[in-house]
Amino acid sequence: ERLTHKPFKVWDISACSMPLQTTLGKDATIYVNRCIWGPNGSILGVAFSKHIVQIYTYNPAGELRQHMEIDAHIGGVNDIAFAHPNKQLCIITCGDDKKIKVWDAVSGRRQYIFEGHEAPVYSVCSLYKENIQFIFSTAIDGKIKAWLYDCSGSRVDYDAPGLWCTTMAYSADGTRLFSCGTSKEGESHLVEWNESEGAVKRTYSGFRKRSLGVVQFDTTRNRFLAAGDEFQIKFWDMDKTNILTVTDADGGLPASPRLRFNKDGSLLAVTTSDNGIKILGNTDGQRMLRLLESREFEGSRGLSEAVNPPVASVLGPIANVSAHIAPTLERSDRIQPPVSIGSLAMAESSRVADIKPRISDSVDKIKSWKFPDIVDSAQLKALRLPDPLTTSKVVRLLYTNSGLAVLALASNAVHKLWKWRCNEHNLPGKSTASVVPQLWQPTNGELMTNDLSKTEPAEESAACIALSKNDSYLLSASGGKVSLFNMLSFKVMTTFMPSPPAATYIAFNPRDNNIIAIGMEDSTIQIYNVRVDEVKTKLRGHQKRITGLVFSQTLNVLVSSGADAQLCIWNIDGWEKRKARHLQAPPGHPSLVGETKVQFYNDQAHLLVVHENQISVYDSQLECLRSWSPRDSLSAAISSAVCSCDGMLVFTGFCDGAIGVFDADSLSLRCQIVPSAYISSSIASSSGAAFPVVIAAHPSEPNQIALGMSDGAVLVIEPSDAMPKWRVPAPQEKGALPSIPSNSALNSQPSRTPSK
What we know:
It is a single chain. The chain is mainly beta. Among the domains are: 16-159, YVTN repeat-like/Quinoprotein amine dehydrogenase (Methylamine Dehydrogenase, Chain H), CATH 2.130.10.10; 167-285, Methylamine Dehydrogenase, Chain H, CATH 2.130.10.10; 370-449 and 630-725, no CATH class. It has 7 helices and 52 strands. The protein has a 5-stranded mixed sheet with strand order 24-49-48-47-46. It is elongated. It starts with 17 loop residues before the first helix and ends in a 37-residue tail after the last strand. WD repeats lie at residues 70-113, 539-573.
């Protein structure tokens, strides 16, 4: 019995955007892409082929009442789902405009917008797992991405088999992830995923070579899968790749029927070729139907004869069919994507900017004159990040690649992650010194803690961290085994490479994050494949421990640095050593030894090389172009230095707490930040002479840095609103500026162009 019928109409045309009004004026044809019930069956969401989502409330009398209409996307709304982030019912939508949006289910106010797909988004799948809420999305270019409710960008980036239209679903208990999709050539793929690795775990067989539509699927009882293909319904046991059984439901099914189990898995609704719906039932489902006195269903036969006894034995009865029959009709006949998909895929463009090298081959000698100090907190914005945990010296620090979080590794092997949330004070959810972020921890209180060496205490030089490019996985070590963490759950996925020798530096290969370069305490570099848990090769060329590694995709090389103050270039293709060179010492200084760090400028061709006695710029042939060193041997040593994301600045920390902001091209000083400007007097007096052990540069905000301090604090610093950039000061008359007590290493010290 059909309870209700709702022909489409726009509820309030005056509230619609002009693009939608224009679209409807040109072509009023509109169809349903998707309909889905809310978690308790009292609300129904409908996604349409043009812009709109309509939400209805449903009561037991069979009434659908208008609740809310949302002008959600430009173009079609391809999928809709419900979720409960922060214990509040929300609606998730995706569309042809390549976006995913989250809406308050009561007010209709947009809460989140997720961007990053490069093609129309085809489907969304929401889950609450291990106290973490997230969304999977798939696009018609075959890309699968995952999002947390934190505006931090996509956390995973997988390729769906078939690289076209794919839907995803979890088992009922949320422990197993499946996807089903069809390629443009008609090849269908039903697979189970290994979430932690982003790899296909199991591929199910039994599809015809060329499906006649996009195959849809569903799961039930944490044990079975069903998909509509070849005018049939096909069933699989989740643990076996071969087909369990098939049924044609007594005929009349389309080539790729849509289908949906009820919650108990005893009934299955499937679409028919004559625009009808068949309800199939196993033994328990049919028994339940016979017990109903008030309802009569046509065609409630078929599945009990087709499915063998083990399937029937795991499916329980349904007490109230009226509460469950309607929700079985969740998925409407999904419309095929537009025929212009090929041109959309071809329109994808590289995100690599055409950046020209900024480093000049020569420069006139810089005139010596004093530079201004930033001495007062009013001259900049500095934020000490909240930390109720026991503080230990920060030994490694970085921004996530999205730039929306800061990750620190302390000397006690504990990691700390701070995230900026979207709120009324920070709508984009960007990292900023103006808004206090949240120290992120799972609700179980579990910390990300590295394995420590059982034979000797961890040294600072043995601490190392690296994030995958999608911020989903962290590799880290603190003198013991290397740990691979899942950044969603903070759980250790695996450990490898027990010490000795200890890992001292880690770098992901940007072309393939399954390939990792790991610098070791014994001076070797191990090229390790995470997926197969195997060391592919060992590189030998240094005499002391490895202290820096960096890849260049432009040059197709790996550059390494060591405590022997030596640089080496390795070809990625064959891993042969292309060149090696020791650092050039400042005039009058003995040969350099000690920890050396390397970082590529944004042109991927020039290197910033950092040593406690100098900072230098090298070209791709390891020729030193420019160098700067403290003025005398009594000056404070350099503790850390990093290049800004735009390649314009070099931020340099000193062991007396000062920070120098240098021009990246000439290595001339722009300004100096003295400790009193960013460390309050009360904190300074209690912690002693704290200094930045490590500086991290924001990946997209060139004037923002984070400091990991010797007293365990983490700070974010950026220019004041009155001075949005770290400016180059203009000299006063006679080339002198007001004299202020400052770091003597930074005063009157020009950069050097080494003699050839």
